[in-house]
Amino acid sequence: MNKYFGAALVGAAMTVCIGGAQAQTGLLAQIKSRGQVTCGVGPGLAGFGIPDAQGNWTGLDVDLCRAISAAIFNDPLKVKFVPLSSKDRFTALQSGEVDLLSRNTTWTMSRDTALGLNFAGVNYYDGQGFMVRKKLGIDSALKLAGASVCTQQGTTTELNLADFFRANKMKYEVVAFATSDETIKAYESGRCDAFTTDSSGLYAERLKLSVPEDHIVLPEIISKEPLGPVVRHGDDNWLDVVKWTYFAMLNAEELGISKANVDEMLKSENPDIKRLVGTEGKFGEAIGLPNDWAYRIVKHVGNYGESFEKNVGQGSLLKIARGQNALWTKGGLQYAPPIR
Amino acid sequence: MTDATTENAPNFFIRRETLPQEAAPLSVAGPVAWIRSNLFNGPLNTILTLLCAYIVVTSVPGILRFYFIDAVWSGTNRDACLADKIGRPVGACWAYIADRYQYFIYGSYPISERWRVNIVFAMFALGIVWMLWNKAPMKKLGAFFFFVLLPISAYVLLLGGPSATGFLHILLWVLLALTAYYAVLSFVPGIARFYTGPALLAVEEAAPPWKRFYRPKRLILMALVAFGIIALLENAVGLPRVDTGLWGGMTVTFLVAAVGIVFSLPLGVVLALGRRSKLPIIQLLSVVFIEFVRGVPLITVLFMANTMLPLFVPQEYSPDRLLRPLVGVALFAAAYMAEVIRGGLQAMPKGQYEGAMSLGLGYWQMMRLIILPQALRIVIPGIVNTFIGLFKDTTLVTIVGIFDFLRTIEATLVDPTWATPTTRGTGYAFAAMFYFLCCWGMSRYSISVEKRLAAGQRR
Amino acid sequence: MSTVSTQPPQPGKASLFYDPKIRGYVYQLVLLALVVFVIYEAASNAIENLRAQKIASGFGFWHNAAGFDVNQKLIPFSASGSTYGQAFWVGLLNTLLVASIGIVLATFLGFFIGVARLSSNWILAKLAMIYVEVVRNLPLLLQLFFWYNAVLKPLPEARNSIALPGNIFLNNRGLIAPSPIFGPGFSMVTLALFIGIIAAIGFYIWSKRQQEATGKQYPNGLIALALILVLPLIVFVIIGMPLTFDLPQQGRFNLTGGFQIFPEFVALLVGLTTYTAAFIAEVVRAGILAVSRGQTEAAHALGLRPGPTLKLVVIPQAMRVIIPPLTSNYLNLTKNSSLAVVIGYPDLVQVFMGTVLNQTGQAVEMVSITMAVYLTISLVTSFFMNIYNKRMALVER
């Protein structure tokens, strides 16, 4: 068969091909000359990355891409979003099809090391949880013995689920589907008692149910899922850009700089604020960006808190509490190194 | 045989006395007799008839009630289709289809660019009619349109962006240069003699210059016109790139089917010829390819295209996500097509081959001019059946994450805007109608061709 | 037009380049070189890419712990101790299970509908035609979605299962029935069953010979039934009925205990059966139509009724036409069972090319193994079919 396969490949390469990046010059320089950032996002998870009917992407993960675009081009719209399934997200990143991956990706050691990737931070602290029907009258995942659980196949979710029930010596029945749509549909139609995925996903998937109020998310979190943006090994400057874009959003929230007041803050005398908005020091230059890079981010996209509330928090349908994702000053885990 | 042998025969199964005369049948013509002889002749048939009647009586009114009488035809969200909101039993929620039909047709293709899809649809329809309608003129031109112009135009129009339009411009320049070259050859007297042999001139000199120019070069002219229009469109309104990730709905379903059809037919011909070739290596490669592909499910081929294809090429040429299943489907269909065409080749009488060879035709001339035109014609029904299978199989691309028509239906089923108890039944019914109309239409066509061919055979 | 040559071809003078034999060799060599080159390129790219992506290769994963669970398994499998290799067998057995049951059911349904389409009963023939036209012209995937949701949706929740006689329960988790627990000595019953089957076959052969010799017919069916069922039953009663049942109990979520038939299995089985039956019906119809009308008329003239005519005259002859396409339909059913992946039935593709592939990331190995399995099934079936066809063809004169 290979004869035709090869011919098709040659044809494929000649007609439609997504040019990959050459690694000789830095990725940032390439992005600047190309005029847009290519950002790998999820295929559609409400609150984190989802396109609307017109194809405009919104979400917490999407905002990070927009912030990077704002920092580089002073325009949050110069992003090309590539929807990637969980199966081929890493291949797409490794092959240079996307510049970064900002789509609910758990930071694990093997991914960070063996796969040749770098995680630039944790923009959402997540963990796997369960959703059940209210009328079952269950308030804890430890009471799920004998339940049947719907899950998506081929994810760590499936493994965590097995570990959790094994560790607690409970019997269960797993029903695994290829796509999240099939999974939530089967759960809704009563095939399963519980639905499991990352708790952020639970809130997002709950919106797809016809009566979301009939379902509750159980308090237990059975795994650590720090989600964050990912880049390839081998381009430290680009890693810095992604990392500090995210830190700038966090620092802006910590310093009280928001979309609304960022222009006033240009006149601030607070040295921390001055360094952030670029009126003091040349911090942008060090990573190949203009000095007002952080100002641009906040101006076009907002700080981390704004992005959170707008996309997944109280300003959204998901209504996820800040919880672990509050700033360290407010009892959460979100902590950014200072700009100085 | 004499009477004596019959009477002396030991066979106990021969009746020896006359049966009493039976009563005359009630009637042998008219509806009553028809019913008696077709529905109630014998106890088993009566039971079967009653059973079938029961099935019809219980299912048909229910279906009619659900899909027509109780159906909801207009509305903007699920409240229109919830029984307790509108106070009557609710059947199919057609309002949901009406609300989402744009999504079913175009997927997430940007609204401002959808006219491009419409043009491709129109060209596709034109090509199909041209190819399939028996009385359509200039079939060769039609084939060129369908197999060459349409794919290139669709590629440029649907994808757009610098790479596609750049490709279009190169094509246009090449075509213009060719046209100019031929124009000089035809209109400037004397030059032609310089370039071509005397034999060609003897045929062509008699024709007036414009005819000499037009007749053989009309393919180029048509390509020039088609691409010129697209280039003008591009100049007027621009063709920004629309990434394949945004394509969806029926657009993708037709695209997958069309790519399968356009590539599988020539590939299938090549494979079938290869399988019947006398050259051992060519034959072996063809057989291995055909049997391998026919021995595995399409899903595995699609998975292979999706996960292994990117590994087989250098990383910077990683194929587009939509292109991968297209390659898979085209190769898969080609193997099945090859077997159909091989049947046609085998059905050709040996005399046709011998006749062609005795005329001094070479292998390719013989195939192109004598064998293939006849062989392909007799297997048209088989080819259409393969297309039907291919069309149904396009649904499998959803498994590798492509938003085809069925997938867009599935996607809207988890959308709470239209989450009602009857949405699912409506969505599946709509999908079923779509696929049924397409496949059934094709099978009707194949039957009519079969009849036409049979008429030719009957004589 | 341009091929009108001015000089007659001169035999013997043609250069080596125009020798068709030599040309053939050249073509083949070029093609072979091209294929080898493409394979080499693909392989080297694959090795390069795998190394760059740090994906392991080879079959070492086979003995690694799987760490996930599967609901329907014919062999013991659990997250705690099972390997990817065992997951492969679980998936393969599930594929074979649904395919083999599907083949049997589809054959019966297909023959019935194929015969019904030719029935003189107008309404039956029309219904059969509508069935065939509708089912054949819809994608199987859509039908599976329909069956899965049609089988699943209307059934009650686990808490109010439909109780069927004999402690069998039906709900949207499937069909839950008591599972037998075999006591000591039960193997005697199994043995008796085997003896019964062998005796039945022996009797059938004997009665056939008797019929050919004397024309006397025996009630084969009844006697076979008695031998196969009654003999083990007697043994079972004699040794004191060593059989108990694990009865389903209502648990917090679902019935526990007993054995469960999952709705995914039912949906896939029904979908495959009804879909393939429509194709088999067409094959059967074509086969019956291929038997010349004279055969039927001759049988009627001999006084055979329509039933025996079909059974003794038409079908045996039609089988010769039917068998080859029937086999390819069986293969299609087996290959189509891979669509299980969309409704969550753990078949080979779902377990192995889905879950295991995603856990290990070794696409090349998983896809190759899965393809090899289907290819083996196909090739083995065609092999036996060819043997069968040869034997059938000998009957023809």
From TrEMBL, chain A:
Top-level taxon of origin: Bacteria
Protein family per UniProt: Belongs to the bacterial solute-binding protein 3 family.
Protein name as annotated: Amino acid ABC transporter substrate-binding protein
Domain annotation Solute-binding protein family 3/N-terminal: ranges: 36-265
UniProt keyword annotation of Transport present: yes
Matches recorded under CDD domains: PBP2_BztA (cd13692)
Organism this protein belongs to: Bosea caraganae
SMART domains linked: PBPb
InterPro entries: Bact_solute-bind_prot3 (IPR051455), Solute-binding_3/MltF_N (IPR001638)
SUPFAM superfamilies membership: Periplasmic binding protein-like II
Source taxonomy: Bacteria, Pseudomonadati, Pseudomonadota, Alphaproteobacteria, Hyphomicrobiales
Automatic annotation (TrEMBL), chain B:
One GO cellular component term: ATP-binding cassette (ABC) transporter complex
PROSITE patterns given in the database record: ABC_TM1
UniProt keyword list: Cell membrane, Membrane, Transmembrane, Transmembrane helix, Transport
Main subcellular location: membrane
Gene Ontology biological-process annotations: amino acid transport
Example GO molecular function: transmembrane transporter activity
Keyword Methyltransferase applies: no
Membrane-spanning residues: 46-68, 115-134, 141-160, 166-185, 219-239, 245-272, 284-305, 325-345, 366-388, 425-443
Membrane-topology annotation of the record: Multi-pass membrane protein
InterPro entries: AA_ABC_transptr_permease_3TM, ArtM/GltK/GlnP/TcyL/YhdX-like, MetI-like, MetI-like_sf
The ABC transmembrane type-1 domain, residue ranges: 250-446
Entry keyword Transferase: no
Subcellular location: Cell inner membrane; Cell membrane
Protein family according to the UniProt entry: Belongs to the binding-protein-dependent transport system permease family. HisMQ subfamily.
PANTHER family: INNER MEMBRANE AMINO-ACID ABC TRANSPORTER PERMEASE PROTEIN YHDY, MEMBRANE COMPONENT OF AMINO ACID ABC TRANSPORTER
Protein name according to UniProt: Amino acid ABC transporter permease
Organism per entry: Bosea caraganae
Taxonomic classification: Bacteria, Pseudomonadati, Pseudomonadota, Alphaproteobacteria, Hyphomicrobiales
